[in-house]
Amino acid sequence: MNVSINQSWKTYLSPEFEKPYFSELVGFVKKEYATNTCYPKGSEIFNAFNHCKFDDLKVVIIGQDPYHGPNQANGLCFSVNDTIAHPPSLINIFKELQMDINMPYPKSGNLMPWADQGVLLLNATLTVRAHEAGSHQRKGWETFTDSVIRVISEHQNDIVFLLWGGFAKKKAKLIDHDKHHILTSGHPSPLSANRGYWFGNKHFSKVNSVLKSLHVEEIDWRIN
Predict the structure, then answer these.
(1) CB within 8 A of 204, min separation 6: which ones?
(2) CA-to-CA distance for 98 and 144, rounded, in angstroms?
(3) Which residues are catalytic?
(4) Which residues 6+ apart lie within 8 Å of 109 measured at CB?
(5) Cis peptide before 40, with omega less than 30 degrees from 0?
(6) Tens digit of pLDDT for each residue in 112-158?
(7) Active site annotated at which positions (predicted)?
(8) Which residues are bridge partners to 181 per DSSP?
(9) What percent of the chain has pLDDT over 90?
């Protein structure tokens, strides 16, 4: 695994790359990609960081695992490549956007335009074996991505964190609540959304209200 990560992040994360756990993680990932089909493509593992530079950061959305179907994952949580059918959670994200800000439902599920505006779409685990959800969990990725959240909390101010679902909400303990803005809700998955824990959270308009109050350019949530 080539740790090809934007220099703006490397400045803060380089100490992690020197730790024993990260060396073991690199070895594991290299072996997995050599012997199995894994996602995302090796060149896209650090896409979340390469499309959202540290100095441009405004918003953090935390996911859990990359999609494990063919051609879905592109290194950004909840995002899929162009022309790929939208997974259920992404459908519900777009439905909430429709209701919240009257955004037309997009054709593409590729969230790259969000990342390019300063939205870090961070999965807790950055790789997965094909058709085996959670197969790369507890191998070191969570240690790394927890460190990412701590670095953001320590070295940035007024970042908006969107914590969707029980897993993401546990990351709140890594964030300085006095320096940052935390919005929580249920997960956009059908199980949570259909129980009333997702729809109506208005997180997208709330994010822009926070950014506007900080005199920071708002996020254009449109995809197409």
Answers:
(1) 96, 97, 100, 101, 219, 221
(2) 34
(3) 65
(4) 79, 80, 81, 82, 84, 85, 86, 87, 90, 94, 223
(5) yes
(6) 999 999 999 999 999 999 999 999 999 999 999 999 999 999 999 99
(7) 65
(8) 160
(9) 95
Q: Cα(34)–Cα(18) distance, rounded to whole angstroms?
A: 23
Residue 11's Cα: distance from chain center in Å?
20
Q: Name the token pair of 22.
A: 């990260």
| Dihedral angle sign, alpha carbons of residues 147, 48, 26, 164 | positive
Retrieve residue 191's tokens. 């199980």
- Write out the H or E segment, with its range, that includes residue 160: strand 160-164
The pLDDT tens digits of the residues spanning 59-77 come to: 999 999 999 999 999 999 9
CA 113 to chain centre: 13
- Residue 127 tokens, joined: 């790789």
Q: Which residue shows structure tokens 């999609």?
A: 67
Q: Do the Cβ atoms of 165 and 192 come closer than 8 Å?
A: yes
- pLDDT over threshold 80, residue 87: yes
Contact 73, 110 (CB under 8 A): no
* Measured CA distances, 27 to 20, 33, 139 (Å): 11, 10, 10
What whole-number distance in Å separates Cα of residue 91 and Cα of residue 199? 12
